[in-house]
Amino acid sequence: MMKPYKKTQGVYYLKSDFRKADQELLDFLFSSAAQEDLNISRCCLHLDESSLLMTMLIAIRNKFVYPAHRHNWKDESYTIIKGQCNYEEYDKKSNLIHKTFLEEGDTLLNVNRTFHLLRPLTNQLAFIESTIGPFRKDGLEFLNE
After folding, report:
1. Which of 7, 117, 133, 138 has the fewest CB atoms within 10 Å of its CB?
2. Cβ-Cβ contacts under 8 Å for 127 (sequence gap 6 or more)
3. Domains and CATH numbers, the chain
4. In whole angstroms, how far apart are CA 41 and each of 28, 74, 110?
5. CA distances from 33 to 24, 62, 110, 121, 140 (A)
6. Distance between the two ends of the chain, CA-based, in angstroms?
7. Helix (H) or strand (E) holding 23
8. C-alpha–C-alpha distance, residues 29 and 145, integer Å
9. pTM, whole model, 2 decimals?
10. How does pLDDT run along the chain (145 residues), one tens digit per residue?
């Protein structure tokens, strides 16, 4: 594996023309997250933030929960490759409206554009997230902002 280059804390990209998410890359992400005292680390397999297809390998430690959020303009999918989690959806008043258990090998397509999160049930969770690009900060809304 060609060592990923660091874009910002916990975010990496691959320089190679051949971008592969494998166990070696996953081990690198978990190790880097531990060294940087982070609970989440990702490697983007797409070229950059202007890419039309964005695919990321995301590693989560210590049952970290990224806050409930929604994207009002795009769908995304998750494929669990290590660990277990619950996918949860919430309404604008923070009421849980849906929960689905996911384990290794499961794929979920999120098309509802509700507030959502992945709640790890294991100390290590890894998944592939795919969505459309380009990246837009203005389309991300957090619950209870």
Report:
1. 138
2. 57, 58, 78, 79, 80, 81, 82, 85, 118
3. 5-133 (2.60.120.10)
4. 10, 22, 21
5. 14, 11, 26, 18, 24
6. 40
7. helix 23-35
8. 30
9. 0.93
10. 557 877 888 999 988 888 899 999 999 999 999 999 999 999 999 998 899 999 999 999 999 999 999 988 899 999 999 999 999 999 999 999 999 999 999 999 999 999 999 999 999 999 999 999 988 777 789 998 6
Q: Name every residue whose Cβ is closer than 8 Å to that of residue 26 and which is 6 or more positions away in sequence.
A: 57, 59, 81, 82, 126
- Give the number of other CB atoms < 10 A from CB of residue 7: 14
Residue tagged 């923070």 (tokens) = 94
